[in-house]
Amino acid sequence: MRKRFDLAILFVLLFFSGCHNVPRDINQIADLIVEEIVLPEEASEKLDFKSSYRVKGIDVEVRWIPGDEATISVTGEVTKGLATREVDIEIEVILDDDRVTRYLGKVMVPTLTDQELLDYLKATLDVPEEAEDHISFPDRCEVAGTAATLAWHSDNANAISDNGTIRFREYDQYVNFQVDVTTEYGTRRLNWGEIKVPGRTAEEHIEIVADMIVIPETISADLPLPSILENVRISWESSDEGALKIDTLQKKAVWKFNEFDRDVVLTAYFFYDTTVVEKEYHVRVLTIPPAERMEMAFDSVSLPDIVKSRLSLSTEFAYGVTGEWTSDKPTVISPDGNVTLVDTEQTVTLTLILHSGNETMSREYIVTTDTIDKNEKFINLHYLVDYATDIDLQDNAYLVLQDDRIVLQPGILEGVYESPVYRTNPFKSLVGSWAAISSTKATVELRVRVRVEGTWSSYLTYSQFGLGLNNAMIPNQAGGVAKMSQDELIVNNNKKADAFQYQVILRRKAATDESPKLALVAAALEIENYQYTVDISGLPEKVDYDVPKLNQNVVPVIGNSICSPTSSTMLLLYKGHQIDGTYPHQNIAQLFMDYGNNIYGNWVYNTVGMSAFGEKSYVKRIYSFEELQYHLVNVGPVALSIKGSTGRYTTNGHLLVVKGYDMSNGKRVVICNDPNLPEVTYEYDLNTFLSFTRNVIYVVE
User: Fold this and answer.
1) Residue 56 has what pLDDT?
2) Cα(543)–Cα(547) distance, rounded to whole angstroms?
3) Is the dihedral of CA 206, 212, 215, 221 positive or negative?
4) Is 116 helix (H, G, I), strand (E, B) or coil?
5) Which of 172, 193, 227, 337 is 20 to 30 A removed from 276 (C-alpha atoms)?
6) What is the pLDDT of residue 11?
C-alpha cells in the first residue's frame, strides 16, 4: 500500500515539472510575437513599438528596424514629409544570446497636408505677426530632411513688399502673405496669413530712424553718413568744414587734418513726407599726435637697397610733417638725391630728420650704390650738354678743337666722334640736339642709341643738317627697343632706358670748303616722377626781356603752321641777328623746315638752325616753373612748347616765346610773345600757364 502511494506522489511531481518546461526555441517565440503584431497600412501618428513581449510566461526583448528611420523612428515616431513614403518594418527578437529577425510588412506615411506644412513652417521660421521693422523673410529651409526654397508674396506691396520692406503710415496696416515652398517634389503655395504693420506718425518714424544712426563722440578718420534710411531722406551740414567736410556724393564726412583737436557739430535734416526734423550730433575731431605723424612719414619712405639712379628724397610729408636729409657721403649721394655712380660700390648713410609741431625725430637709411663700367659716365641730371671744350679728341685723327668748336682736320671730308656710354636715371624718351655753324657745303649729323634692359637699340639718326639745304629727317625710324618719332627718340613698350650713346659726324663737300663748326651736343631726358630742386630765393620779382614781336598769321599760306620758326626768329632778332625780308620768319621757316616729316615744328631743326647763325642753342626739358624762372634770370628768354587751352585758344601743339615773369605786387603772370595772338605780347596767369606747358624749351645761351 505504501509503495503505491509513493509512486503516485512521484507521478504528480513529474507531471507538474513537465508543465513548467516551456520550449525555448527562439524561432517559435519570434513566430508567436509576429502573430501578435498588427501593423497599420498607413500611419500619421506615433506607432506602438513595444520594447518587449511576454510569450508563455517569458519576457522577450525586441528591437524595431524601420527601413527609413527619418520617416519612422525605432521608437515609432512618424515624421511626414513632402511626398508619400512606404517604409519596410522589421523586428529583431532577442532571447538570451540568440537573435532572429522577422519582416513585418510595409507602412505608408502620407505627405504633410497644407495645414501641417504651414504649422511646421510657422513653428520653425522667424516671421513676426506684427512688424515694427523691415522683415527679413527667410528664403530657404529644410522640411523633413528635404531642402526647400521659399518665395513670399504680399497682397499690398505699398505696405510690405515681397522682400519685406515696410512703408510705415500713420495708421495700422494689415497685409496678407502667401509663400511658395519649392522642393524636388514641386511647388506648394500656402496662405501664410496676416502681418500687422502698426501705425506711426512721421515724427515717430523719423525718431526711430534717427536712433539707428550712431555718431561716435570722437573721430580721427572719414565718417560714413547715410543719405536715406527707411524712406527718410537725410542731408548733413558741418559747423567746421576745415575739420570735417561733408562729401554728399561719397556720402561721408571727410576728416581734415588740423594741428589740434576741434569740436564740430554735425546737423542732420530728416525729410519724411512733408515733415522735417533737425538733429545735432556733437563730435570731437581728433588730430594725429606729432610722433604718430612722423612715424607715418618714416613709413612712407622707401629706398632701394642698391641705388642705380637719382633718389627722390621727399622733404614734405602728410599732415604738415617736414624734413631734411643729410648724407655722410654727399659727393656720392647728395641731400637732394643726386647720385654719382662710379666703378666701385659705395655705402652711404642717409639720415632723415623730421619735424612736427615742437617735436623732432630722425632715422637712418643705409644704401649701397650700383657700379658702372669703366667706359661709362654717369649723368645724375635730366639733361646732358657736351660742350666742344669738354669732348676728348685725343685719339681722333679727323677732328680737332679750334677755338671753342670742333672742326674737321685740314683736308678731311668726314670725321666721326663717338661719345662714351652715358648711364642715366631711367627715361622714357630722349631728344638729341646739337649746335653747329653749317652751310650748304658743310653739315653735321647726330645719331643716338639707347640701352633698354641690357639691349641696345640701333643708332637712330637726326640726318644731316646744313643751313640752306632742304634738310630732311627719315620718318618712322625703327631701332629695335626704341624708335624715332619726328624729333623724339622713344623707348618702346612703355619700358625705360638706362643709358645712351651718340655719334656726331661732321662733313664737307670738298677739302677747300670751310668745315662745320660744332659747339655742343645735348640730350634732354623724359624721366617719370622726377624732381629737380631749384633755389629761387634770390631771384628778382620781375623779369621782362625786350624780345621783338612777330605774328605768324600775317605770313601768307604757311602762317598757321610756323609758330616754331616764328618763335625761333624772335629769339634770333633778340640776339641781334639781321634777317632779310618783309616777313623774316617766313625765310627762317624755309631754312628750318624738316622736309622729311614735312613740318616746320621739328624742335631739333629749329635749335640746330639757330645754332647755324653762331648761337649755342639746343633742346632742353625742364621739370618745374622754378627751373624756368632760374633760366630766364640767368640765361635769357626761351621758346616753349605748349598744348591745351590757353584761355584764348586751344591747341594740339604750339610754340611761343617766354620772355619773362612778374611776381610783384600780388601778380603771378608769365610774360610771353605768343605768335598766334594779334597783339603777340600777352601775360598768362601762372596757373593757366602751368596747365598748358609741355616743359620743352629752345635754349639760346
Assistant:
1) 86
2) 12
3) negative
4) helix
5) 172
6) 44
pTM for the full model? 0.64
- Residues sharing a CB contact under 8 Å with residue 312, sequence separation 6 or more, in sequence order: 337, 529, 530, 531
Q: Contacts by 335-339 with C-beta closer than 8 Å and gap 24+?
A: 336/533, 337/310, 337/311, 337/312, 337/313, 337/531, 338/310, 338/380, 338/381, 339/307, 339/309, 339/310, 339/311, 339/369, 339/378, 339/380
Per-residue pLDDT tens over the stretch 256-288? 999 999 999 999 999 998 999 999 999 999 999
* Stretch 87-103: mean pLDDT: 95
Q: Could you read off the pLDDT of 37-60 as tens digits, one per residue?
A: 999 999 999 999 999 999 988 999
**Listed residue (324, 255, 258) closest to 293, CA to CA:** 258
d(CA 323, CA 420): 38
Q: Crossing angle, helix 603-611 and helix 584-592, to 10 degrees?
A: 110
Task: Supply 670's cell numbers.
Answer: 608769365
Contact 218, 228 (CB under 8 A): no
For 267, the 3-state DSSP assignment is strand
On the question of pLDDT at 222 being above 60, the answer is yes
Q: Where are the domains of the chain?
A: 43-109, 114-197, 202-285, 290-369, 376-527, 542-604+617-700
Does 582 have pLDDT greater than 60?
yes
Q: Cell digits for 409?
A: 682736320
Q: What class does CATH assign to 376-527?
A: mainly beta
The predicted structure's pLDDT at residue 18: 40
Identify any residues that bridge with 87 across adjacent strands, giving them in sequence order.
Answer: 107
Task: Answer yes or no: are the C-beta atoms of 594 and 473 closer than 8 Å.
Answer: yes
Do 202-285 and 290-369 have matching folds? yes
Q: Is the domain defined by 202-285 classed in CATH 2.60.40?
A: yes
Confidence (pLDDT) at 15: 40
Region 602-629: what's the mean pLDDT? 98
275-285 β-sheet, strand order: 218-219, 275-285, 262-272, 232-238, 228-229
Strands 173-183 and 186-197: antiparallel
**Phi, psi for 46 (deg, rounded to 5):** -60, 135
pLDDT given at position 523: 98
Confirm if 660 and 543 have CB atoms less than 8 A apart. yes
Chain segment 472-529, per-residue pLDDT in tens: 999 999 999 999 999 999 999 999 999 999 999 999 999 999 999 999 999 999 999 8
The separation between CA 534 and the C-alpha centre of its own chain, rounded to angstroms, equals 32
- Tell me what the mean pLDDT of segment 551-565 comes to: 97
Residue 152 β-bridge partners: 179
**Number of Cβ atoms within 10 Å of the Cβ of 409:** 15
How far apart CA 72 and CA 602 sit, in angstroms, is 94
Q: Quick one: 590 exposed, middle or buried, by C-beta within 10 A (0-12, 13-18, 19+)?
A: middle
C-alpha distance from residue 267 to each of 225, 278, 284, 306, 693 (Å) = 11, 7, 14, 54, 44
Residues sharing a CB contact under 8 Å with residue 390, sequence separation 6 or more, in sequence order: none
CATH of domain 542-604+617-700: 3.90.70.10
Neighbours of 202 (CB within 10 A): 19
* Site of grid cell 678743337: 401
Q: What is the per-residue pLDDT for 24?
A: 73
Q: With the C-alpha atoms ordered 62, 65, 66, 69, is the resulting torsion angle positive or negative? A: positive
Percentage of the chain lying above the pLDDT 70 cut: 97
Architecture of the domain whose range is 114-197: Sandwich (2.60)
The fold for domain 290-369 equals Immunoglobulin-like (2.60.40)
Inter-residue long-range contacts of 65-70, CB under 8 Å, 24+ positions, other chains counted: 65/89, 65/90, 65/91, 65/92, 65/101, 66/90, 70/144, 70/145
| pLDDT score of 66 | 96
